[in-house]
Amino acid sequence: MDWGEADRLLALYTRERGKLRAVAKGARRIKSRKAGHLEPFTRVTLQLARGREMPIVTQAETVDAYLPLRETLVKTGFAAYVVEMLDRFTYEDETENYAIYHLLTETLGRIASEPDAWVAVRYYEVQLLGLLGFRPRLFECANCGDPIRAVDQFFAPGAGGVLCPRCGVNLPGAWPVTVNALKFFRHFQRSDYKGAQRAQPGPEVRSELEALIQRYITYLLERTLNSPGFLRQINK
């Protein structure tokens, strides 16, 4: 966002210090040498100096611009969603988290390079929730502990995962989930990305799983994200 007369305030997710904010002095000036390296969705190497209120960017060099993310509104929307989700779930605490950092950079690369980024985005959601401590229970009932069988179930965010039909029926706040949507949810949770790519759900299952994860994220954040609405608009 704009800051002062010619500066820019940046939100960064770093490998060594997690999320932080920094000021890029003069980045809005036409002749600024840093401006081209400080675009959204860009992986950069930065040098930061201590400032009175927050760090100041003294040098910037692009590592990966992920240029295809800017070629279509769909790819731009997916990239915006990925970073918005991370921004809403994390705080500025200067704690390193290599796993989240690598998940973020790998996902941006996958969205940029793959014709259909649906699997990459769903995999990111499921894996990020796990890394943040919100991994839902999908293999046994979150209430009674019985193994989940191959029938339609319920999902209860307040209980922390899936409920069997006996525990979930008529329970306020429990959402029905089909056996097929749950199958792919579990697949993304326990697979590496190469394994996740083998998932080829049909349109109905895609829509159901996407809506289920979105509702879970909204429950956890107690608010909706902005970018999913944008994606729905451009995909009409």
Give unreliable regions as ranges: none
Q: Roughly what percent helix?
A: 25-40%
The gross shape turns out to be elongated
Total count of strands: 8
> What structural class do helix, strand and pairing data support?
alpha+beta
Q: Whole-number average pLDDT?
A: 92
Query: What order do the SSEs take from the amino end to the carboxyl end, as H and E?
Result: EEEEEHHHEEHEHHHH
Please, how many domains? 2
Determine and state the CATH class of the largest domain.
Mainly Alpha
What is the C-alpha radius of gyration, as a whole number of Å? 20 Å
- What is the makeup of the main sheet? 3 strands, antiparallel
Structural account:
It is built from 8 helices and 8 strands; from the N terminus they run E-E-E-E-E-H-H-H-E-E-H-E-H-H-H-H. By secondary structure, the protein is an alpha+beta fold. The chain has 2 domains: 2-64, Beta Barrel (OB fold (Dihydrolipoamide Acetyltransferase, E2P)), CATH 2.40.50; 68-234, de novo design (two linked rop proteins), CATH 1.20.1440. The strands form 3 sheets. A 3-stranded antiparallel sheet has the order 1-2-3, with no helix packed on it. It has a 3-stranded antiparallel sheet with strand order 7-6-8. The radius of gyration is 20 Å and the shape is elongated.
Condensed summary:
This protein is an alpha+beta fold and about 240 residues long. The protein is built from 8 helices and 8 strands; from the N terminus they run βββββαααββαβαααα.
Name a few traits of the molecule.
236 residues, alpha+beta, de novo design (two linked rop proteins), 2 domains, three-stranded antiparallel β-sheet, 18% strand
